[in-house]
Design brief:
The complex is a heterodimer of chains A (446) and B (463).
Chain A: E1 2-8, H1 9-27, H2 33-43, E2 44-46, E3 52-54, E4 56-60, H3 64-76, E5 79-81, E6 86-88, H4 97-121, E7 126-134, H5 139-154, E8 160-166, H6 176-190, E9 193-198, H7 199-209, H8 217-232, H9 248-256, E10 264-270, H10 275-278, H11 285-297, E11 334-343, H12 366-369, E12 370-375, E13 384-392, H13 396-411, H14 416-420, H15 426-444
Helix pairs in contact in A: 1-2, 1-3, 1-5, 1-8, 4-5, 5-6, 6-13, 6-15, 7-8, 13-15
Chain B: H1 2-22, H2 31-38, H3 43-61, H4 70-84, H5 106-118, H6 122-134, H7 148-160, H8 165-205, H9 207-212, H10 217-275, H11 280-288, H12 290-293, H13 295-353, H14 378-382, H15 411-451
Helix pairs in contact in B: 1-2, 1-10, 2-3, 2-5, 3-4, 3-5, 5-10, 6-10
The chains are: A alpha/beta (446), B mainly alpha (463).
Function (chain A): Acts as a positive regulator of hedgehog signaling and regulates ciliary function.
Protein name (chain A): Tubulin delta chain
Keywords (chain A): Cell projection, Cilium biogenesis/degradation, Cytoplasm, Cytoskeleton, GTP-binding, Microtubule, Nucleotide-binding, Nucleus
Chain lengths: 446, 463
């Protein structure tokens, strides 16, 4: 089973390149033959000359990033992109979602979909499609949304996962909140699941956990790639009977995003340390899982600065409604969680802390809301690592902020003409706001 | 002609044997054995048929047993046949105990085999099972999509009881979404299968392409052995299907032959019956299982009986209906006569009662001639003369009702008497009319005097 990755825009292409880098390094371990083969089948197409070619399609409206990525991978020599699997144009989308969605997308639809189709045909079996993009810019968000729409039409029965990078709250682009709102509201209808990385969070991880002084996009992307890779690499699921899960995206979705109102996924992992201090660190499963659990319930995205005061609410006796007043302040209610453990002694890890019903919404029993994958194969040089993919209230606050800022701008009709001139009307904006308010309300009622 | 037919029968039986063999049955006897079984010959034939029945029934009923000894096999076959609904006498346990195996002839076993073959779709069921065994590629994937944990969890909802409708709805939406994802996963697995199958087929049909690729030798050889096995399996399957097709083509002939087997069995039985009387137990069994012992004869008997009953019923019916019709006609006629007579009598009575002095004495008309018929009636012979009763019609040659004695009177004398009576009555009538008129005139005169009214007779109406 294979995953076809579609890298869209500057951010998508950079993160995608880092992801393949991480996976190719991880899969190259000749000691773990089954694991490597499974991983390679998933992400790479092996040519007759035993070359690894990424099952990836690169799309951007500017040539710069794509040619950089191709050059970088060619230099590494371990893997490469397909010769004809990239598409770029001379002129960008100008950070305008409407330009990407209404102009560039339709104009290049045929070429782009041809490349995707070719890539899909190279797979023995398509497990799913992962589209990677940012929501702030024009190409990733606008063209990305349009391409996702085409993918949905072309592969109605395939799993489509969108990986989104959310911009810094302080702002990279003035209209980033417009772009984000439009992207999210459209993708919520098209995609099966939306996996979100916030630049702010990852930036903090780089600063506080990795001790990086001058944080570049590359560092941020590396962290994102590490987290993504540890989710998507082979693991043993609960009922796989010792065989690596064949359809990671499908199984991820079956355990996390079955309800159509709740599609937002976030990731947190432990441990995350700088490569220099890794040699001096010792980790135990109880310690890691205790931290990870607290990170989950206290809604902190990293080990540093966890609020240990937050406790899970005590379960009310049956028949009594759990009301808002019963909820602890700062407590993060989950709909569903997927815990992935990689490394030594995974079978001895005690995971009952994640199975407690008090962590979850009352309408879904804990045994259904929680699932676990594991593998004794360590990931990316970490002897032990735990990753939590969570469908929870974590993203509620950033989403609310984003929609609020966009609404404030929209209320004064700022920059709206930039969108209307490409065919996005004010009604379209209002529709997007409405659907995101619905998402916010759904999550806050968990 | 006869020879040709027997040759045909042999071919047919051979095709059946081929099908049975391809179906993976052990101990399939030869066509010659079948022929010998028809004539009830040979101990070894009996044994072979026991084994054949055993293996067929074993497969058909999916029984688990390991019969090694012949007696085991024997009782097992009897039980299985009984379970199938076959009720021949040699299967039935009766007060005299089971008929010993040595007494069961090969022909009886052959008939039993024919019965098993004809009842239900035995061959088809076995064929289906066997083809599933051979054709592994078209099998549905045996992937467990849901872990037992998921299966059991739905029960928890009921256990919690207090869940509100909204929660249940959300839960349902979740489950539905999960189902959809699982369906998609299944779909992708099927697609992969199809693709791989296509690759295998294309590489096996075009060996030139596979040799041109410099793949590693052991991998290639492993592939080829797997392919060889697959090809073998497919060849067996196609052989099986061909054999079945051939059998289907010739099946009617087999049943003709089977008929002849049954016929010969019946003729043998008839001979036996004449030689030795059946024991009472046998008779009981025969009554219980009319098809079991003398299949065809019993059937014929029943047919005949049915036919007889049907014709009898028809006869009775027609007779009954005819009778009913005639009765109906009689009744109608009688009513008509009665009606007419009553009308006549009424007329007569009216004419008679106008004379109050005439009393109850009246005469019935008699259609007899003036000459009395000799030696005709009891009443005549008795000679008693009584005044005639007025009720009941007197028909010639019939005695009317109960205790009424009629006097035969000559018409001429009657006419005279009647004429006299008429004259008398008319005279009386005239007197009475006169008296009445006098009375009325007196009355009107007295009334009119009081009122002072002059009565003017009405003018006759002009037309």
């Amino acid at each position: 089973m294979s995953i076809v990755t579609v890298q869209l825009g500057q951010c998508g292409n950079q993160v995608g390149q880092e992801l393949f880098e991480v996976i190719s390094n991880d899969a190259n371990d000749t000691q773990r033959k089954v694991y490597s083969e499974c991983s390679s089948e998933r992400f790479f197409n092996e040519t007759a000359n035993r070359e690894l070619v990424a099952r990836s399609v690169l799309i951007d409206m500017e040539p710069k990033v794509i040619s950089q990525s191709i050059a970088k991978t060619a230099k590494s020599g371990k893997w490469r992109y397909g010769d004809r699997s990239h598409f770029s144009q001379k002129q960008g989308s100008g950070n305008n979602w409407a330009n990407g969605y209404c102009v560039h997308g339709p104009r290049h639809e045929e070429v782009v979909m041809d490349i995707v189709r070719r890539e899909v045909e190279h797979c023995d079996c398509l497990a799913g499609i992962m589209a990677m993009m940012s929501v702030a810019g024009g190409t990733g968000s606008g063209v990305g949304t349009y391409v996702t729409q085409c993918l949905r039409d072309e592969y109605p029965n395939s799993f489509i996962l969108n990986h989104l990078t959310w911009p810094y709250g302080t702002g990279e682009v003035i209209v980033q909140n417009y772009n984000s709102v439009l992207t999210l509201s459209h993708l919520y209808q098209l995609s099966d699941a939306i996996l979100v990385h916030e630049n702010d969070t990852v930036h903090k991880i780089c600063a506080q956990l990795m001790n990086i002084k001058h944080i570049s996009f590359r560092d941020v992307n590396k962290v994102i790639a590490h987290q993504l890779g540890s989710v998507l690499q082979p693991a043993l699921t609960g009922d796989s009977h010792g065989v690596y899960n064949r359809n990671p995206i499908g199984e991820l979705m079956s355990s996390l995003v079955c309800h159509p109102e709740y599609k937002l996924l976030s990731v947190c992992n432990i441990p995350q340390v700088s490569s220099s201090s890794m040699a001096y660190s010792m980790f135990t499963w109880p310690g890691l899982l205790k931290h990870l659990r607290q990170m989950l319930i206290a809604n902190s995205k990293m080990e540093e600065g966890i609020d240990w005061q937050v406790r899970a609410p005590s379960l009310q006796p049956e028949g009594i409604e759990r009301t808002r007043s019963h909820r602890r302040p700062g407590f993060n209610t989950s709909l569903a969680n997927l815990l992935i453990l990689r490394g030594k002694d995974v079978n001895n890890a005690e995971i009952s802390g994640f199975q407690h019903p008090s962590l979850y919404t009352p309408w879904l029993p804990a045994d259904e809301a929680f699932s676990m994958w594991k593998t004794p194969v360590p990931f990316n040089k970490y002897e032990k690592s735990a990753i939590l993919v969570s469908n929870s209230q974590t993203l509620l606050r950033p989403l609310d902020n984003m929609v609020g800022k966009a609404w404030n701008m929209f209320a004064s009709r700022a920059y709206i003409h930039q969108y209307t001139k490409f065919g996005i009307s004010e009604e379209d904006f209002l529709d997007s706001f409405t659907s995101l308010e619905q998402v916010i309300s759904s999550y806050s009622q968990l | 002609m006869q020879r040709e037919k027997s040759v045909k029968a042999k071919e047919v039986i051979e095709s059946l044997c081929k099908v049975l063999y391809s179906l993976g049955l052990e101990c399939v006897p030869s066509a010659e054995t079948f022929r010998r079984a028809k004539f009830n010959k040979g101990e070894d034939v009996v044994l072979e048929f026991w084994k054949l029945l055993h293996s067929v029934l074993l497969k058909a009923l999916l029984l688990e047993c390991s019969c090694t000894t012949l007696s085991d096999l024997d009782s097992h076959v009897r039980e299985a046949l009984w379970q199938c609904g076959y009720g021949a006498s040699w299967i039935v346990v009766n007060t005299a105990g089971l008929r010993p195996r040595s007494e069961v002839g090969s022909r009886e076993l052959l008939v039993a085999f024919g019965w098993v073959l004809s009842s239900g779709s035995l061959l088809e069921a076995l064929l289906r099972a066997r083809s599933l065994e051979l054709d592994i590629l078209s099998l549905p994937p045996t992937v467990s999509l849901s872990s037992p944990r998921e299966g059991g969890s739905l029960g928890d909802v009921d256990g919690q009881g207090g869940l509100k409708e909204d929660r249940l709805l959300r839960r349902l939406q979740w489950q539905y979404g999960k189902l959809r994802f699982q369906w998609r996963r299944l779909l992708s697995i099927r697609e992969e299968r199809a693709r791989l199958l296509h690759q295998v087929l294309s590489s096996s049909t075009m060996p030139s392409t596979s040799t041109s690729q410099p793949s590693s030798d052991d991998h290639h050889s492993m592939c080829s052995t797997a392919l060889k096995k697959e090809v073998e399996r497919l060849q067996t399957l196609s052989q099986l299907l061909e054999a079945y097709l051939e059998w289907k083509r010739q099946e009617p002939l087999f049943w003709c032959w089977m008929d002849s087997v049954v016929d010969s069995q019946l003729s043998d039985l008839r001979e036996e019956d004449t030689v030795e009387n059946m024991s009472p137990v046998h008779q009981v069994v025969n009554r219980c299982f009319p098809y079991g012992y003398k299949d065809k004869e019993g059937l014929e008997q029943l047919d005949n009986m049915l036919l007889r009953l049907q014709t009898g019923l028809k006869d009775t019916y027609t007779r009954q209906s005819r009778k009913a019709q005639s009765v109906l006609q009689d009744v109608e006629e009688l009513e008509e006569i009665e009606r007419r007579v009553a009308l006549r009598l009424h007329g007569l009575a009216e004419s008679c009662t106008s004379t109050p002095t005439s009393g109850c004495c009246s005469y019935r008309p008699s259609l007899q001639g003036p000459q009395p018929l000799p030696n005709h009636h009891q009443s005549w012979r008795s000679g008693s003369v009584l005044p005639q009763a007025c009720d009941g019609a007197v028909l010639p040659g019939k005695v009317s009702g109960t205790g009424t004695v009629m006097v035969q009177v000559q018409a001429s004398s009657l006419i005279v008497e009647l004429q006299q009576r008429e004259g008398f009555l008319l005279g009386e009538l005239g007197q009475m009319r006169q008296a009445k008129r006098g009375q009325i005139q007196e009355k009107t005169a007295s009334w009119l005097e009081g009122a002072g009214v002059v009565l003017i007779p009405p003018l006759p109406l002009k037309r």
